[in-house]
Write a structure and sequence with these properties.
Elements: H1 32-39, E1 65-67, E2 72-74, H2 99-116, E3 122-123, H3 133-148
Antiparallel strand pairs: 1-2, 1-3
Length: 153
């Protein structure tokens, strides 16, 4: 949501996936994230950040930043890493990750915490005029809860 190089849609928040063994017989059940998730009574804020050190499979289009105090869209991006029209995204492919990209992904995670607590003065979550940050965050939480629900046959 805050980074073109972080694929939120590929995230999996279901604890049931931790118990599924792969072809080698390994599972994520013993991982730190799975243990903390269980030990904190299924705390929904327990995540790990996994990254490929080369490149991503795709990059995400970003909403423009919205300045809540001045009620205006900020169309100009601050860096070429967040500007998907910049040369690093030429050919519409995910770029080879650089220190600048890793920094931007880390920064975007901190910005997501500000969004989550509804205290980000310049957010990308507002999609239409008149929408509040609280409404945008509540919609995302609702969508995440849907994604966490077990699939039915």
């Amino acid at each position: 949501m805050n980074s073109p190089n972080f694929d939120f849609s590929a995230c999996n928040f279901q604890d049931e996936k931790n118990n599924v063994a792969d072809a080698k017989g390994d599972s994520r059940d013993g991982s730190a994230r799975a243990s903390i998730f269980r030990d904190t009574d299924r705390n929904p804020l327990t995540y790990t950040f996994e990254a490929n050190y080369c490149t991503g499979l795709r990059f995400n289009p970003l909403n423009h930043r919205y300045d809540l105090e001045n009620c205006k869209v900020l169309a100009k991006e601050e860096t070429n890493v967040t500007d998907i029209t910049s040369s690093i995204y030429k050919g519409r492919k995910s770029p080879v990750f650089t220190p600048d990209i890793f920094f931007e992904v880390g920064q975007s995670l901190v910005i997501a915490l500000l969004d989550y607590d509804c205290i980000n003065p310049v957010t990308r979550l507002i999609k239409k005029k008149g929408e509040t940050l609280r409404e945008a965050v509540d919609k995302i939480r609702k969508d995440m809860n849907k994604k966490d629900e077990p699939e039915t046959a």
